[in-house]
User: Fold this.
Amino acid sequence: MMNHSLKSLCKVNPGTVILGKWHQKKYMIVKELGFGANGIVYLAEHKGKRVALKMSDNGISITTEVNVLKSFAKVQGSSLGPSLIDVDDWLNNRVSVSFYVMEYIDGPNLLSFIGQKGKSWTVVLLLQLLKDLETLHHNGWVFGDLKPENLIITGPPSRIRCIDVGGTTIQGRAIKEFTEFYDRGYWGLGSRKAEPSYDLFAAGMIMINTAYPNRFSKKAGGISQLREAIRQKQELIPFERVIVRSLQGGYQSAKQMRDDLLALVTNQQVSDNAPEPSVSKQASFNKPKANQYPSRKTYKKKKKSRGWAETLFILLLMVCLYTLYIMFRN
Assistant:
C-alpha cells in the first residue's frame, strides 16, 4: 500500500505542472484516470499532446513497470501495452516523487465496447487478447491483474490494448496485484504463482463477465458454481468446454486456448484432453461417415447377386450328391 503522507504528494489537482528533475520536461495535469496500490495515473498534456502520467511513492514499482514497457517495446508489431515516453522524478515540497509517462490509449473498456457493439464481438476480442498474451508469456511475463477495466478497445479498426501494467509479474514469482473475481486463488482453483495458466484463468472469467456485466459473488466457490453460471447463459454454452478448461488450468499456453476457441468458432473439433463434450456434441462425433452405409439400389443389387450364387451352389451340390448315389448304387 502507498504511504499516506507520500500518497498525498502524488495526489495533485488539474492544472498542476509536473517538471521533470532530470529531463526538464513539463507535463500539465488534466485529470485523474485511476489509482491503485502502486500509484496514481493522470491524463496530462505535453506540448499539446495527451499522455498518461503515473506517479508513485514506490520507486521500485515504477522501475519494474518501466522495465515491462521496455520489454513490450522490443516486440515488433506488438500492441501489448502503451509505449513508454519518459521516466523522471518530480520534486514536490522538496520530496522526490518518481513518475513515468506513457502513451495515452483512448477508448471504451472491453465490457463497455461489447455493450455498445454486441456480444458477437466477445470472441473476436478474446482471440486478439490471447494472441497478445502468447507474446507476453513468451517474453517471460504474466499480466496478473487481467480484467476488462485494463483492456481498452481502440480503432477503427477495433483493436484490444492492455493498459496498467502494474500487476505484470516475472514468471515464477508471486502475483503482485489481482482482482478477486478474476483470481483463481479466490475461487480455490489454483495458486497465485505467475504462470501463463494464471492469465488464462482470468481470460475465462472475462468471457463469463461479458454475460454477467455486474459479476456475481462467490458462494460455494470452485468449478461447480462457475460451470453453473456458464450453463445459465445461452451465449456462453457453445464455449463451455474452452472456458471450463481455462478455469481448471488445462491450458499450458495462450496459443492452445486460442486454437480451441477458433476451432469452436469454425465448427472444428477442439484439441485433445479437453473436458468431456456435452451429449449433443458427443452424438455429433458418432455420426457415420459419408458412404459408410450402401444405398438402397446398391443393397438390392448385392442381394440379387448373392441369391444367384446361392442357387448355383445348391444346384452343384445336388449334382454331386446324385452322381455319388449312382456310383454307390452300381
